[in-house]
Amino acid sequence: QVQLVESGGGLAQPGGSLRLSCAASGFTFSNYPMSWARQAPGKGLEWVSGIYSDGSNTYYADSVKGRFTISRDNAKKTLYLQMNSLKPEDTALYYCVRGFSRAIAALPRGQGTQVTVSS
Questions:
Q1: What is the pLDDT of residue 102?
Q2: Which of 16, 80, 84, 112 makes an SS bond possible with 93, Cβ 3.0 to 4.6 Å?
Q3: With contact defined as beta carbons under 8 Å apart, do 38 and 93 qualify?
Q4: Are 116 and 65 in contact (CB under 8 A)?
């Protein structure tokens, strides 16, 4: 079965950085585009970034463009999200998602890793 396990979350100060990882198993990772999504307290699931199966193209929400970088290592079956210049509004539970769709809530995702940005 599809398993996606996120790690790397934690507490960061405004302006700081964190790197999230997602270990994938139970499917052929290199065949799928992947995404990161997040859910802030009291809000809906928000798509953050997506990457093609071969890593050739990447996409970002306007709110994170220029600050976040998505990447993947197909040999290690791992997805990454490098987050720089963090802002308090980036505070959320971050999910690794298999796929890249407007209907992101319907796609398989992990349990999430908490990111808190606060001084």
A1: 78
A2: 112
A3: yes
A4: no
